[in-house]
Amino acid sequence: MAEIRTGTCSWTDRTLLESKTFYPPGLKSAEGRLKFYAQHFNTVEVDSTFYALPARRNAELWAERTPPDFIFHIKAFGLLTQHSVEVARLPRLLREMLPPDKRELRLLKDPPAEIRDLAFQMFADALLPLYEKGKLGVVLFQFPPFFVPRPESLNYLEQCQKMLAHYPLAIEF
Predict the structure, then answer these.
(1) What's the CATH number where 58 sits?
(2) Pfam families this protein is in (predicted)?
């Protein structure tokens, strides 16, 4: 019989927190909440990675704080899914690579190829601890409505697969 995994889109999901019925009173730390969550569910989608590139150390901690069979599904960083991203949320290295006229923007869309490529590398590196521990499910590429089936889109999907070659991808249009 096929295995069924259950989870939510985040262990810090607003509905979980606001319900005041899931987490014990006083449990406020991210570490404590993840450990508690992992006692009740065996998978989670990490959506914070859509808004900012994750730190490798966070992935190490997520792996350490969960049981061996726990699986993380990671939402791809918005810059990798052709969404606009807040310039302030980019790592300093990427911000410094931006042309001067783009550094002052609030939102960045269509970054230079070398910035997107480096963002892919940084994203892949950050997920490595989960992959090495067997805790990485899929990397979810949630594309915007304008990303429709056409040759350019298919070429970009091939690029995503190439840049994250070790990781299973899930694509959402």
Answers:
(1) 3.20.20.410
(2) DUF72 (PF01904)
Task: Give the H or E element holding residue 108.
Answer: strand 107-108
β-pair partners for 139: 74, 169
Q: What is the pLDDT along the chain (173 residues), one digit of tens a residue?
A: 899 999 999 999 889 899 999 999 999 999 999 999 999 999 999 999 999 999 999 999 999 999 999 999 999 999 999 999 999 999 999 999 999 989 889 999 989 999 999 999 999 999 999 999 999 999 999 999 999 999 999 999 999 999 999 999 999 98
32 Cβ contact list (under 8 Å, min separation 6): none
Residue 88 lies in a domain: no
Q: Which two tokens stand for residue 23?
A: 């987490």
Of 79, 42, 46, which Cα lies nearest the Cα of 160? 79
pTM score of the predicted model: 0.94
The two beta strands, 85-86 and 107-108, are: antiparallel
Q: Enter the tokens of residue 117.
A: 């490529």
- Asked whether the beta carbons of 6 and 40 are under 8 A apart, the reply is no
Task: Collect all residues with Cβ–Cβ distance below 8 Å to 94 and sequence separation of at least 6.
Answer: 115, 118, 119, 122
Residue 1 has what pLDDT?
Answer: 86
